[in-house]
Specification:
9 helices, 4-stranded mixed beta sheet, homooctamer, alpha/beta, Rossmann fold
Amino acid sequence: MSDTPHSTLDPGRLERQGFPEVIYCEGKTAGQIADNLVALAAANGHAFGTRLPEDRARDVISAVPEACYDPVTRTITLGEPPAEGPGWVAVVSAGTSDLPVAGEAAQTLRFLGHKVLRIHDVGVAGIHRLHARIEEIRGASVVIVAAGMEGALPSVVGGLVSAPVIAVPTSVGYGASFHGLAALLGMLNSCAAGLTVVNIDNGFGAAIAAHRILQSSTPR
Amino acid sequence: MSDTPHSTLDPGRLERQGFPEVIYCEGKTAGQIADNLVALAAANGHAFGTRLPEDRARDVISAVPEACYDPVTRTITLGEPPAEGPGWVAVVSAGTSDLPVAGEAAQTLRFLGHKVLRIHDVGVAGIHRLHARIEEIRGASVVIVAAGMEGALPSVVGGLVSAPVIAVPTSVGYGASFHGLAALLGMLNSCAAGLTVVNIDNGFGAAIAAHRILQSSTPR
Amino acid sequence: MSDTPHSTLDPGRLERQGFPEVIYCEGKTAGQIADNLVALAAANGHAFGTRLPEDRARDVISAVPEACYDPVTRTITLGEPPAEGPGWVAVVSAGTSDLPVAGEAAQTLRFLGHKVLRIHDVGVAGIHRLHARIEEIRGASVVIVAAGMEGALPSVVGGLVSAPVIAVPTSVGYGASFHGLAALLGMLNSCAAGLTVVNIDNGFGAAIAAHRILQSSTPR
Amino acid sequence: MSDTPHSTLDPGRLERQGFPEVIYCEGKTAGQIADNLVALAAANGHAFGTRLPEDRARDVISAVPEACYDPVTRTITLGEPPAEGPGWVAVVSAGTSDLPVAGEAAQTLRFLGHKVLRIHDVGVAGIHRLHARIEEIRGASVVIVAAGMEGALPSVVGGLVSAPVIAVPTSVGYGASFHGLAALLGMLNSCAAGLTVVNIDNGFGAAIAAHRILQSSTPR
Amino acid sequence: MSDTPHSTLDPGRLERQGFPEVIYCEGKTAGQIADNLVALAAANGHAFGTRLPEDRARDVISAVPEACYDPVTRTITLGEPPAEGPGWVAVVSAGTSDLPVAGEAAQTLRFLGHKVLRIHDVGVAGIHRLHARIEEIRGASVVIVAAGMEGALPSVVGGLVSAPVIAVPTSVGYGASFHGLAALLGMLNSCAAGLTVVNIDNGFGAAIAAHRILQSSTPR
Amino acid sequence: MSDTPHSTLDPGRLERQGFPEVIYCEGKTAGQIADNLVALAAANGHAFGTRLPEDRARDVISAVPEACYDPVTRTITLGEPPAEGPGWVAVVSAGTSDLPVAGEAAQTLRFLGHKVLRIHDVGVAGIHRLHARIEEIRGASVVIVAAGMEGALPSVVGGLVSAPVIAVPTSVGYGASFHGLAALLGMLNSCAAGLTVVNIDNGFGAAIAAHRILQSSTPR
Amino acid sequence: MSDTPHSTLDPGRLERQGFPEVIYCEGKTAGQIADNLVALAAANGHAFGTRLPEDRARDVISAVPEACYDPVTRTITLGEPPAEGPGWVAVVSAGTSDLPVAGEAAQTLRFLGHKVLRIHDVGVAGIHRLHARIEEIRGASVVIVAAGMEGALPSVVGGLVSAPVIAVPTSVGYGASFHGLAALLGMLNSCAAGLTVVNIDNGFGAAIAAHRILQSSTPR
Amino acid sequence: MSDTPHSTLDPGRLERQGFPEVIYCEGKTAGQIADNLVALAAANGHAFGTRLPEDRARDVISAVPEACYDPVTRTITLGEPPAEGPGWVAVVSAGTSDLPVAGEAAQTLRFLGHKVLRIHDVGVAGIHRLHARIEEIRGASVVIVAAGMEGALPSVVGGLVSAPVIAVPTSVGYGASFHGLAALLGMLNSCAAGLTVVNIDNGFGAAIAAHRILQSSTPR
């Protein structure tokens, strides 16, 4: 009696939105993910998936052995990314627990052909660590900053650089962090003007936002 | 017994963050605003203030008659903006009540020397109105989209253009809109990847975010 | 010492509310569900249950092998539905993850003797997909629209059709979706007038609402 | 320097959505409202506005003396409504303070050419009052129920009638009613299946929802 | 290095607050619960525990075989309750899923020596079921009403009886019930005057409140 | 065109719920209040109204000079209360700002013929003040405790007396008190068993709850 | 009929809690405030009040001309403060709008005999301003940090000093700051260990907390 | 393809913030924890970790057998703490379930070389228990008070002592405690002036705050 339909590919997305389709693995079986990877790689030359848990990844790799899985960021890649473009993105994170989200952003950017510089462990409670790296960060065309708990790092970075800053709240924290709500509110209310914010833990979205910036322009 | 200190100017902001100081008029007296306008115009050639209520604006204009006040966006300008740069920004809004927020973004962009195209009254309940304008929007280097109520317009725009899209939730609505919370949550959860979001009614912040993008690159 | 009472059947519901009793399987044992199915089918000619997890469904099927279980919508049916009435319902959904909720609505409608057209994968980030199907949707007597994340699809549909539109927020999303709250608020604040909303993930309730409309009238 | 644009009429709405444009007076001047009334009445034969405060209404009436203002529902009407159609709507309300919202629904329905029966003061704390009127209510093609505080009335009505029931939470209450949130949540979680809900205080939206039902069908 | 202290008995509670100590089993081991039951029964003649999961109950029963466990209400009793006093309590519940909470109240009352009448399955969506039992309920000295979802039942009961009514919101529901918040808010905002409310799922607290009423007075 | 109906009296309430109708003055004109007072006093021998602002009270007193208004509790009384019954109520409050709410409870109880003892200024930050009065409080048949801010006083009182304790959160506080929400949550989560709670600032409801207790029993 | 009681002085507070009574002026008349000032100054040698609006202050000064009112912090003082103790407090604030709250803390500290250093305008978006002052701050025995918007300043300060840091969220901000909630959550979730937090806008409470620290110890 | 970086030690923290680095074990593997313990003990003479679940602790102890694990507070210690300083801290808790949080504070303080007095089971529903211990508590230089549910204990303690009081809300409770939110709000709104608050369940943070106080001063 069931007639539940299947999802369909969206071949025009690249033209309309400027980036190829990516597999959101949550709620998909290993078989569906494997099929999608192969189909997208055949169409685009390479394919990419996010939010893939480690146990399911094993089954995907069994089916598509040439795919490459990264357990920290829970992303999977098939095929070579395009050649790197001229601009690059600094992906800055506050604490060790923010690394999966920052890493999801970095892996997505690499899949889209962008060079990435990772700067980590520069949370605001030890602000000297950020100062030691700020000149490097100033060279980036776009800066992504991931932080949990009070989410203050983007405010400090945003006051020190003139590039676009995309803030990613993470769900790192406990008690009154309310699964990232505290960080999200902090970033939306930043006293550093011109920050923009994406959803909690949305490293992928931050990367696409950076990609939209990079592709619509020629960096200085 | 009071020793309440006064705020000080921040001459290094332009160098650090890439945009000159702007006067946030809420909580300032007409005299303070007038002094700030004159001082900043003397330093930078022009000056700009936001969130200036109409009655206080009259007193400011009395003191600085060459300043220009716009009652819809509640902004005030003194001096000529810089020559327009090469890229331009589309400022798209959903309904009539969103115009003050969208206008604050537009006025801020003009103050910073950017060309702006206003597209209004294209809310998603009459989606044909957006389709009629979408080709124009596609020419922009950056797109700012302001919407209240359910805040759905940025999702639709984000699916139709490849440029960076900055979503501005407005406090337009009543009841379960909770003063813009519904629109804010809608934009953060957009199914169009790569949108970024600023605080409720923060047209100024959206403009600065667009400025960060434009100044860090040469548009295509 | 326990004297916990048992639930009782409500034979008058059909007369009062216009639809037969349905089994809400959450919190019931397989044995209770099987007994209920048999008793209701004996009384009404057919029986229907919702929210039945797959593992418990196996035990129910063992006891009542002629029952039919659908794992996507987690519904179970026993006996033939009544002959289809003259009007029909379009059940529209935004993304793949919304299919279980949309499907629960569709299965409930079929159990109640209504024809259903499923339209899926027409989320607002690729609005052309909706336009390709809108003429079909316009033929429906009632339209049910299920969407998670920002929940914008009902607003767009509501602006394109004149039939009653019942919006179903789903708990699809993460972070600031707050388990469907973002979609719920979006739908309640829709700029398309005359939408009505049911509880998060309540496909069943949307179907009963559609049934109330269809049975109180003769469609055009 | 201001270039704030003006709102434009949407002549195709009647065809697309099945009801003529209505003036939402909040945030409009008396002059704008008067102009809109005259223009819409010229186009459609009659015109209607909601959310018009009493003091601004006086100015509108000065400009358009043949318009008719109702201070309880804060609605204004110009011209005769269309002839009444065959079905009719019961508009049921719980307490005296819910009358403005219920009345907004009733006035909107009359403007759209529907017959309305008002049933008031039947809150659940005196359930006998509802029972005395329930046979009348059962004759309606659609039932709108407005209630504040705990918002329980729609659940009781929904269990007693088979017609479509549209629940309107009102902001009536204090303390933990949180401006209608308690009533809204109560209605969304109703144990009476097939209720649908609109935004807090949205009598207008409930009326349009009823209109969508009535116009898409011929009542029994 | 650990010096974590142990909890101590509070022998004076009966005198101060009028009821003996009861074991809240959540977070206690089977051994601690067994020891507490034996010690309290030795002191008071009987003992009682709440919130005891079924698997841990088995170990408690192994250690104290004469104890009696009720799996629906998750309560355990050791020894005979005192002779019943003159007044009695009606424990009314809306749906099948509310039975554990209503049952916890009933078991607690019996432990304290009060006669209880259980009335169940009288939710407001089938209000005739309540009317059939209301005369019985009117004979009670105190009425406890447990309901989840929209939590409307106490309002209706409170309008029909003059005895004290204690409302217990339950966490039954899904989506926008937010684990009992909708029912809690509904009960706090009841239009029936003089209802009082306890915490979500707090059948025990409702019983103690009823006990405070019964013991401070001689029923009519 | 307006047909807004008027509210009607509910003569059977006394029999059904055990207390006469009381006028909730919010949203009523001085004329309506005056009429209601006179009508209810004619029917019941005395009449009572709550939530009457001082300026409107002046107009009511002009129309009904024998009525008596209390500006602190914002209540109005006409006629003599009934003779006092045997039990009495302690109305305990934490701080000076809680007096209006506690006073509303006291005035309502007097109107209903109950003796009241007021105990004030015994907040938990100076717990010795409560200890000095606790023996008096222990003599009451019912204890009402009003407190704002953290709302801790009912917990302490509930641990010291065996009578029924009705907790009234007040909206006293600022910042994270969220208009009484902090006090409300504190009271619902009290570690003193058997407290019951009414809505924020609902002194009237607490009094009716006490009345329900007193009238259903003969105090010890 | 009114018997509303009056608040009483608490002469033992100084001994119990270590600080004299302070007048919270909100909700008190000018006459009551004047009486309290005079009475407390007579008892303690000096008196102090907070949250006194400017218009009411004029009436207080008329009655007690030797009192001194500070309009920015809305505090009033009568008599000389005690001689300054050995330790001192740094009161640090982020933006101009935070000055009233920081000033309330400073005035309270001076009233209690503590030396204060004000550091202002050192918000995190211009972190160099904080670095220029950090050596001064490090000399303090206690540091109070007031900030609104995202409330990040205490985290940065807490990472740079070893003294006790008391964070005061202010209600400065708009939109998703939710009247100080964003700053409050940020401070509670600070990644700088050992920060403590007081209520939104509670400069007075922060000062008392600092006083508790200073008086229980001899600073280094 | 993964280049996820590793966390780095922060050797300067002791100098900047006055306390050595502590291992937050949540999200770290047993191997990482063991390595960190050994490295920090080598650098500082002793090491300490918090939030270590019991099963993972077994693996850490296998690798570092001389480490000492406390299962109630889930802390681990390696090496001897420093000699005790002159002041000491009272760690007061309300109920048995608050012991893990209070214990985390106590263990952290001992690791930092501070003497601790534990006072437990003194919740406000049996206030005599607190009075029996209050003289002991008055001798402390700092008082930490941990409580869940309504979180009232710090208010009572704060009114009885003049030392600094640090309130720790715990997540103990159910229903409307919302995982510690009720206790947190209660403590932030305390009527006892000068309390400060840390995050929910943050016993560690409370201990560091006490350490900041003790080290910046010589206790009386």
